[in-house]
Amino acid sequence: MSKSERFEKVYSQGALNTTEIWVDRETGVNYVFHASGNAGGLTPLLNRDGKPVISPILNSSPKSSV
Questions:
Q1: Number of structural domains the chain divides into
Q2: Of 1, 5, 20, 63, most Cβ neighbours within 10 A?
Q3: Residue 50 lies in a domain
Q4: pTM for the full model?
């Protein structure tokens, strides 16, 4: 992954109906992406208080967990 890539996929499930979680590496904000067929949508992931989920920003090399 090059340094110019801003988003990192940290979670993925499904094949035809996919759900993924992406993290903005500059702000730490988590986003949920869901796709079904030719349609898809992206939205910030919110906690129970309605505030965005924010991950710690790490300046190390990315994990290859997905």
A1: 1
A2: 20
A3: no
A4: 0.79
